[in-house]
């Protein structure tokens, strides 16, 4: 009997250890990014002209559609080869990036490429408008994008800032715009430049989420675009092809949460509303829109029906429809979040903790009810973006961005990683089950 009990305890112990050891799997890693150039001569010309400086290329955002994994490379500096790219999921450990939808769409015309050296610091000063050779661009052109979103209707939504060489000699080459592609044909569906009155002095559009009411009603879609610099939210109706700007006090940063210590770099940011996620559909079809400022540890929510009503959401009556969900606790700043409908779990990055957190929406929102599905002081230094794909895999991109912005990266090490894991496996043993 004693031996039998000992065997049971041993099995239980091994089960607990196995559960706690389930971590994100490293899918891809890069020391530096390389591209699928049309030819070696084109690559050499880009290097000679300064249009390609390998050290200027840092991956930031990602999303998945079938066998394509999309990766964004913002034009922080002047030598970015292509801002919107993809790799094939079956690619080797260090794949080269393929521009999407084409090289032409991601190539800046001659005369608008800055040769200035990038400078350390936060967001750029007011960018200069660029006139020369802009006519060479098309509606499919992607100047610089941070985050993207694949929707249920096989469309890729791109928030193109239109801004190049952000940290050096910033240039507003095209107006900020939503650019939407049909992933089945790789053709442009629409480009929607944001109206001038949506753009404020400190505006910085770096994220987009898409709210499709029903998969068989793809025209009835809304995009929510946070303005982390001027503390607003742009709501875009695909059916009406129009947008409106919403403001609220909850969009601002928390002055007590603006200090960061990541990968040996200390810095301060004042970024407001940034992370957004759609909650589970209610019986009436509505959803909660979860959101938080980057420089904050608090999570908020607002019904999507509020945002989708232009006259109501832009008036003062909507103020009390916004609710505080809770607080992630000390050092709980987060850059991105995504809600998994089936598990009812919200995943979010934990940039100051080199990790990824989770919260079950059935529970109160506080540090005791939240889990850390993975943390790694090497592989997860600045987890920048995450998504859950159609097969319920969680994908996470980490990129050591603070060192890229304020110091320098060691290119003999792996600096950029994409990791993945099964949602249900990752939340085992956490308060998120």
TrEMBL record:
One cellular component (GO) term of this entry: extracellular region
Top-level lineage group: Eukaryota
Similarity comment: family membership: Belongs to the major royal jelly protein family.
Protein name: Protein yellow
PANTHER family the record matches: PROTEIN YELLOW-RELATED, RH54244P
Subcellular location: Secreted
InterPro entries noted in UniProt: 6-blade_b-propeller_TolB-like (IPR011042), MRJP/yellow-related (IPR017996)
Keywords for this protein: Secreted, Signal
Lineage of the species this protein comes from: Eukaryota, Metazoa, Ecdysozoa, Arthropoda, Hexapoda
Signal peptide: 1-21
Pfam family, one: MRJP
Record's function text: Controls the pigmentation pattern of the adult cuticle and larval mouth parts.
